[in-house]
């Protein structure tokens, strides 16, 4: 349990650690390359640990010194497993989805499992797509959900259709392993692809490791056979999602926060769009080459926001919305019900516990700003993004206590240390 200390205002400069999303992808690309790669400013957290663990179970050598990781890639030729091997991936949905395709490239029988919450997070569409491409994946328990059994023997590849509404990580998983499918891969996306910027991040990482993806917007992707990742020295840029809590601090209590190691002018990270939302709500935003400065310019105003492209920003916006005039509507995020928690329900529950007026929608949430809030014990629901957003609320509402606050280790182990420096 952690009690949040209120602050009258803020003047701070914070250096943001490397991006979790980029670290996951760079680790897999480096593990598939043949030879030694160095990943600088990689994020070491619970989620990326599970990706490292999964790659090590396939025979990839990974060591680290500070924020530098050394990866000896196998060229896609993983150590064969004579016996059935179980790989536990906790509640890291990114690790599970990206490694599902990677493990299918190996040889042997594997069980990909995870936490109790992971067993509630759907994976059917990705497994079905991989089976159509020549993999052999079956269910160990409830159909469509982890754990799964993979009889790995490589992936034939070819053309496959997959829906875009469930998770962009399904597309990223197929893309990352596409160069090592025998016939390459051609992906036709049916419907509207959610969280599109994460696919842009995947394609950008692949390019830096020497693989080119041909694409038609977000509906068609092709990787020609014969391409392979090349080992390289790769630097991970700062995590925009994690920077958002510090920007939110300036918005909620006033003052100025500068986040370093954030290149909002050139990053592919979709959460950079959150700066436009802060602009629209009444903040002053200065975008620099390697830093962003946010100040509250006056009274905050509610907003109507489609966050389909940046779902991780929903809890952050929901925290700010409590202190904005009028109503804030967040739309097009129904897939948040399958994150580390059912985030739509969890926000409505915990914000309501504080005295807020919240309407839960099928695909989003409405927060009515300006309600009188009172301190209480709130539950993080073992969800890192809820815990960090509740810390923002605690800057204004005295006496908020957060249960299970250590869940931030999933994506931001140093969060509380940096937060206390405010």
In short:
The protein has helices at residues 20-32, 46-57, 93-104, 124-132, 168-177, 196-208, 240-253, 274-281, 314-321, 343-353, 384-394, 415-420; strands spanning 2-3, 10-15, 34-40, 61-65, 68-74, 85-88, 107-113, 137-139, 148-153, 158-163, 185-190, 214-216, 220-223, 233-235, 255-260, 283-287, 291-296, 304-306, 327-331, 357-360, 365-368, 377-379, 401-403. It is of the alpha/beta class and 422 residues long. A hairpin with a 2-residue loop joins strand 4 and strand 5.
Q: Which keywords apply here?
A:
about 425 residues; UDP-n-acetylglucosamine1-carboxyvinyl-transferase, Chain; 23 strands; about 30% helix
Largest sheet: 4 strands, mixed
Radius of gyration: 21 Å
Sheet with most strands: strand arrangement = 2-15-17-16
How many beta-strand elements?
A: 23
Oligomer: single chain
Assigned CATH class of the largest domain: Alpha Beta
Structural class call reads alpha/beta
Low-confidence stretches: none
- The number of helical runs is 12
Strand content: 25-35%
CATH architecture title of the largest domain = Alpha-beta prism
Q: What is the assigned CATH homologous superfamily of the largest domain?
A: Enolpyruvate transferase domain
| Morphology call | globular
Q: What proportion of the residues is helical, as a percent range?
A: 25-40%
**How many individual domains?**
2
Q: What is the distance, rounded to the nearest whole angstrom, between the alpha carbons of the first and last residues?
A: 19 Å
CATH fold name of the largest domain: UDP-n-acetylglucosamine1-carboxyvinyl-transferase, Chain
Mean pLDDT: 96
């Amino acid at each position: 349990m952690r009690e949040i200390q209120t602050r009258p205002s803020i003047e701070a400069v914070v250096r943001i650690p490397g991006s979790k999303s980029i670290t996951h992808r760079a680790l897999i690309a480096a593990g598939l390359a043949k030879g030694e790669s160095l990943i600088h400013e990689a994020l070491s957290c619970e989620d990326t640990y599970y990706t490292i663990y999964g790659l090590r179970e396939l025979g990839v050598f990974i060591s680290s010194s500070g924020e530098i990781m050394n990866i000896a890639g196998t060229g896609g030729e993983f150590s064969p497993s004579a016996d059935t091997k179980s790989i536990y991936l906790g509640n890291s949905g990114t690790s599970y989805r990206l490694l599902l395709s990677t493990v299918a490239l190996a040889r042997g029988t594997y069980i990909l499992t995870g936490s109790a919450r992971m067993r509630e997070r759907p994976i059917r569409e990705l497994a079905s797509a991989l089976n159509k491409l020549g993999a052999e994946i079956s269910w160990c328990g409830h159909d469509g959900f982890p754990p799964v059994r993979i009889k790995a023997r490589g992936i034939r590849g070819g053309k496959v259709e997959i829906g875009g509404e469930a998770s962009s990580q399904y597309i990223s998983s197929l893309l990352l392993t596409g160069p090592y499918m025998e016939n390459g891969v051609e992906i036709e996306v049916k419907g509207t692809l959610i969280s599109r910027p994460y696919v842009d991040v995947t394609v950008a990482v692949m390019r830096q490791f020497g693989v080119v993806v041909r694409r038609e917007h977000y509906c068609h992707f092709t990787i020609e056979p014969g391409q392979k990742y090349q080992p390289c020295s790769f630097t991970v840029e700062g995590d925009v999602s994690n920077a958002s809590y510090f920007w939110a601090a300036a918005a909620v209590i006033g003052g100025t926060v500068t986040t370093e190691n954030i290149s909002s002018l050139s990053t592919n990270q979709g959460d950079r769009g959150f700066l436009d939302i802060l602009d629209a709500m009444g903040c002053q935003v200065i975008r620099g080459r390697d830093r962003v400065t946010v100040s509250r310019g006056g009274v905050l105003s509610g907003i109507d926001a489609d966050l389909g492209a940046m779902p991780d920003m929903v809890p952050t916006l929901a925290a700010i919305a409590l202190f904005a005039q009028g109503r804030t509507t967040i739309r097009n995020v129904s897939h948040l019900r399958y994150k580390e928690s059912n985030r739509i329900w969890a926000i409505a529950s915990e914000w309501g516990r504080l005295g807020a007026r919240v309407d839960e929608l099928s695909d989003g949430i409405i927060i009515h700003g300006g309600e009188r809030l009172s301190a209480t014990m709130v539950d993080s629901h073992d969800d890192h993004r809820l815990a960090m957003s509740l810390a923002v609320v605690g800057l204004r509402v005295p006496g908020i206590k957060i249960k299970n606050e250590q869940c931030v280790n999933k994506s931001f182990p140093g969060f509380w240390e940096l937060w206390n420096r405010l």
